[in-house]
Amino acid sequence: MRYLDKLVSIVVPVHNAEKYLSKTIESVRAQTYPDWELILVDDCSKDGTSELYETLLEENIIVIKLPTNAGAATARNTGLTQAHGRYLAFLDADDIWRPEKLEQQLKYMKKNGVGFVFSSYEYGD
Q1: Whole-number pLDDT of residue 10
Q2: 46 within 8 A of 14, measured Cβ to Cβ
Q3: Which conformational region is residue 24 in: left (phi greater than 0), alpha (psi within -120 to 50 degrees), or beta?
Q4: Distances in Å between the alpha carbon of 110 and those of 80, 94, 114, 116?
Q5: DSSP strand pairing (4-14 vs 85-90)
């Protein structure tokens, strides 16, 4: 597989995330860094999560539905097999990013020649 040099592949394991997933996706759409693909891996959700996918038909959003419930690790690994980006980012279905997250992390990585970064988090209710 040929990876796209500037693309960030964002892998999101999804299980019964109807309550949160829209905000999570909007936080990705709001990124100041424009070169991303969002890979949502549905781990057999039983709530209304599946109905949300119908509204997400965009070129840079991929939805994969697992045939059986296998857990978050399997969902992440499945998403990785579909990633086209040089960079990988993991995001949980109930988390949101600040708009400049990807841009700041990639800038830091390139400036300092590092291959892995992470950031802190804060709780929100």
Answers
A1: 98
A2: no
A3: alpha
A4: 22, 29, 7, 11
A5: parallel
DSSP assignment letter at 32:
S
Beta-bridged to residue 12, according to DSSP, are 40
Residue-wise pLDDT for 2-29, tens only, equals 568 899 999 999 999 999 999 999 999 9
As a whole-number percent, the residues of the chain with pLDDT over 90 amount to 81
Distances (CA, A) of 78 to 29, 30, 31, 97: 22, 25, 24, 22
Gap between the terminal Cα atoms of the chain = 40
Helix, strand, coil distribution of the chain in percent, nearest 5 = 30, 25, 50
3-state SS class at 102: helix
pLDDT band at 109 (very low <50, low <70, confident <90, very high): very high
pTM above 0.90, yes or no: yes
Per-residue pLDDT tens over the stretch 57-68 = 788 999 999 999
User: Which residue type occupies 2?
Assistant: R
